[in-house]
Structures are given as C-alpha cells and as structure tokens.
Sequence to fold (377 residues):
Amino acid sequence: MAAPCCSVPAFWVLGTNKRLGGLSTLISKSFCSAATASRPLSAQKLAERLRAQKQEQKKQKLPVPTNPVQRRVQELVRFTQQLQRVHPNVLAKALTRGILYQDKDLVVINKPYGLPVHGGPGVQLCINEVLPIMGKMLHGHKAEPLHLCHRLDKETTGVMVLAWEKEVAHQVQELFRTRQVVKKYWAITVRVPMPSAGVVDIPMIEKEVQGQRQHHKMTLAPTYHMDNGKMVKGRASRNAHIAVTQYQVLSSTLSSALLELQPITGIKHQLRVHLSFGLDCPILGDHKYSDWNKLAPQKLSVGTLKKLGLQQSKARHIPLHLHARQLVLPALGSRKEELNLVCKPPRFFVHSVRRLGLVMPSQDQSGDNQAGQPGAQ
Fold:
C-alpha cells in the first residue's frame, strides 16, 4: 500500500498560500553563507539566526505592487530564486515533508523547480547533497544516505525515485536503462503540434553553436532529408543517439497546447528538442531550445504575453513548463505488483494553464506541489 500523501511545503509554491510566509523567512543571502560554512551550525546558533532573519525580513518587507504585470513578475522572480537561498537542512526537511510514496526499499519525492540533482560549477545546493540529511530525518542519526535512482533536469519538476540501498538503486537504474519504466510528462507548448498525436522518431546529437556566445546544445540528426521534393536517406552520424517520443495533445487553443509526453528513450533534453525542433512547438519557458542560433529569452506572441500577464522584457522569468507527472515501475524485489506514482503539477504550471485558456484533466485542476495519489496497482 502507498504511504499517505503529504503536502509539499509552500516555500516554492506560487500564489497567496498563507504558509508561504513561514518558510520564506528561512530564505536569505546571509543564510546562504551559513550553508557554505566550513563548520555546521549548532542547533542553538541556527535557531538564533532564524529568529534574527525573521525580524530582519519583517523590517524589509516589500510592498505588493498594484500593477498586475509587476505582481506577476515579482511572483515569478521569487519562485525561481527561492531554492538558491535555503540551508541544506531546510531543503531536506521540505523534501521529506513532501514525500509522495515510501516503503522499505524506495522513497519517492516531488522534485521542485530550479533544484539541480547533482552538483557542478555555480551550484550551491543540490538534491544529492541533502540525501544524507534526509536519511537521518527519516530513519534516525545512524541511517545511511539515500541513493539516486535516476535524474531530472534542474528546470523539470515532478516524480523522482530514491532508494535506501545501493543495490536497489542499481536495480531501478537498470529498469530505466532497459526501458521497462513507463514515464509520462506534461508540458505546455507555444503553438500546437500537428497532428494532435503521434511519434517523433528522430536521432539527436550534441553540437557547438557558433555566435556571440559559443555554447553546446542537443539538436536533431535526421537520417532522412528532402531533396528536390523526394525523401532521401542520408548517412547516419556515428555520434547520434536514437531518440523516440510519443505525444498527445490534451488541450489546445489557437496559440498554445497542453501535451502528454512519453519518452521511449532517455536522451539528454530529448523532450525539449523533439518539441522545439521536431514539431516546431517549444515548451513554454524553454529559453535554451526556442532558438537554435542564440541563448536569449523566449520570444512570445503579443496574445500569449497578454494572457500570461507579462511583457516581452520580462519573459526571461518564465520557468520551464515541463513536469514529470507519472512513473510506473514494474515489480521489484519483495513487491509483486507494479508501482504507479503520480504527482500533481506545481501551482505555477496550473496558473499558466488557466491563463492560456487551456483545460487540465479534472483530477489535476487543483494544482499545487501536493503529492498525487501514488500507489501500487
């Protein structure tokens, strides 16, 4: 049986949830310095710092803008910056409160937006860093760290699986590698794909983009191309990866769509590239793959900006609207049935669905970073 679902703390949730204030007091630049200190803070010093921070934020509380566009911008900026300023203990506690499912082998969390899975250049905080803290919070101070079973991009939200034992993590990783795990994502796209359902089967490769800012991107490497109106097969690149994505439009307007995506393969940035370069329907908030030649904020139509309550100059604050909604794991170990894990989209995703005039399936209309209704089926 699945464990009861918990609400994810509202410190990364947009909107006017009253709980936002409680956890947002833990976010500050001064607190960030504590996260990187060479020695951990004692419980007493941590409590004193939190109290001081709370008093300071009361004094510096910014007024709420009266202009709806300014309010929307402030909302998005706050959302995209929050997780860069929390203490590892705070993040670990937030993730444990928002557990979607757990048993003796697995812990399934709802990964928030903007949080990297692994460390790297410029990364102050990541999920891998807080796994030992989470283990102790769940099983006591002698507990071993949790282990990652797979990864999601920094900007992607949704279902993420952890394991207590390294051997179990390897087993789950093998299920992903051999494509035995059913993965379903939701995405909001700019423009509507034609046809409304289908399969994108185009290999991908990473290339360097020349321009003012040299950078690398994944792109399509098709083995077929048009020549004088005829389809001609070309030579496949030795470095290209097979990439297959199923898609279906759940709801659409003239200028946007809500899609369900099922990646059959697991290539880096596969969904983003297939949608943008394969179907000419980039994901809303995908500032990297909306244009091949440059890295710049996504260019949106006047109508879309108006619906979102933004100006083009503020489009850079729009987060990537890509959500890992569902995983179906086959039977593993002592569990004899498949495990169906579902996670509701974050509140900013639901807000955008409504603003754009799209219709979300009824069971997910409430939105939120609440847990879905996972369980064995």
